[in-house]
Amino acid sequence: MRPQWQGGGHAEARPAGGKGGRGLSAIVEFDSVGLRYGTGAEVLRDLNFRLQKGGFYFLTGPSGAGKTSLLKLLYLAQRPTRGRVQLFGEEISDAPRAALPEFRRRIGIVYQDFRLIRHLSAFDNVALPLRIAGSSEADVEAPVREMLAWVGLADRSSARPPTLSGGEQQRVAIARAVINRPQLLVADEPTGNVDADMAQRLLHLFTALNRLGTTVVVATHDISLIKEMPGAHMIRLEGGTMVDPTGALKNPPQTGWVEVQR
Amino acid sequence: MLSWLFASSSQRRILGRPAGVSGPTPWLIAIMSFSMIVVAAAGLAVSNTAGTIAKSAEHRYSVQVPDGARNLPAVISALRSARGVSGAEAVPEADMRATLKTWLGSEADNPDLPVPAMASFDLAAGADIAAVERQVKSAAPNATIVAHRENLRPVLRSLRVLQWLALGLVALLAAAAAAAVVLAARGALDTHRFTIDVMHGMGATDVQVTQLFQRKIAIDALVGSAAGAAAAAAVLLLFTASATALGELTGGVRLGLADIMLLLLLPLALTALATWVARTAVLTALRQAL
């Protein structure tokens, strides 16, 4: 892999591995946020936090803690049932539905199950965000080729997802998520389906992207992955709420904690 | 405005469908288009027939002379001298007896049968029928004038009912086609739900997603409508080639240029309807999701 990609897009350049602090502008703000599905119990409760622009965040917690639900709020697949969510400095909790696509184009998503479109080639999968954003075909070719080379799949551009290995599919999914240089990258267990070596390589991709200014949020159970990013911040969820950082997760000690609004 | 019809190959690939026309929708639209055009043609032919009959009867009158042939020459003379009257002629007795044979059989030829005398005439538009009637009654006091349109009113009413029935059937077929398109659009949405979700996640607008389906359904509808129209035209030409069949169907009335233009517009209208319905159905379904 060649992490020297410098393609255009939404993200702003910033020093790598930024630390949380009130002095930096927030890209995400949650204020007393709760989420329930239908008439069930709340799966997320009283979430108060802010993520700084250009930060690198790990979202951890046991299965069923609400990590995926929190990510859904971040990438606008769900609206909070209560509380206030701000993205990119704008209130989106009750934003009109027609306004959401513009926000979504500034967010890259890496799904746990990749969510690649099976009948499209790797090239077309990666090109999809650009085409949705209205880029002409002439403007799609070069960035997609460059991006596929960046994730080490230059020679697999015409392959369809079912013919790719799990790691290759994951890299296509990542290439697709970052082709637009999103301001916010959200990844749900991105290393859950790949071996340790591939997990390291994927983390390096995220790090490179973070250095280019993208705020990265990675949901993971993988402690070793977290250890690799000493400058990253952590969000730990248990039972749908954020928990005391000094409690359940003490490792890695070098990791900073997400700023929690009191 | 119609740029959505000209999607690039990359846009067409997104839904992963085979190129060109496929699936049951074009067949369904073709059947609807065929039925609509045939029914509409029949309705227009009936309308033209009713119009022709009404026009021919509009100024035509009959004079019934109960006193028989004795007063008929005086009645004819009175008619011919009346203002606005033309074509005043006595109905030959042989014709009257031939008509009566329908009910009386051979008795209609009995010379003792008192056959009523009858004359018919045309009255110019705006002429005073009351004045004509006064002149006729001066010649034959018991004579009565009957407007042909009064006799034909039940027939014309039936033809108008048939005409409205044809219009109703065309509307019903259009509604059925629209319902089929809604089902097809919803089916396509369900089939491609995954792709749509992924596209929405990347910031695709409802209109962008809708255009992928709208274009496909518009092409299916256009091809189906054209095929149905071609089949209907062949059937109608076959009927018009057979004078007997045409006579039975339409009373010998042919379709005019305006009628043919109207029929040619039907497939285009059906295509526009299908496209609009598909767009509305897809947009409505998409709006139910975030």
TrEMBL record, chain B:
<feature type="transmembrane region" description="Helical">
    <location>
        <begin position="161"/>
        <end position="185"/>
    </location>
</feature>
<feature type="transmembrane region" description="Helical">
    <location>
        <begin position="260"/>
        <end position="278"/>
    </location>
</feature>
<feature type="transmembrane region" description="Helical">
    <location>
        <begin position="217"/>
        <end position="239"/>
    </location>
</feature>
<dbReference type="InterPro" id="IPR004513">
    <property type="entry name" value="FtsX"/>
</dbReference>
<keyword id="KW-0472">Membrane</keyword>
<feature type="transmembrane region" description="Helical">
    <location>
        <begin position="27"/>
        <end position="46"/>
    </location>
</feature>
<keyword id="KW-1133">Transmembrane helix</keyword>
<keyword id="KW-0812">Transmembrane</keyword>
<protein>
    <submittedName>
        <fullName>Permease</fullName>
    </submittedName>
</protein>
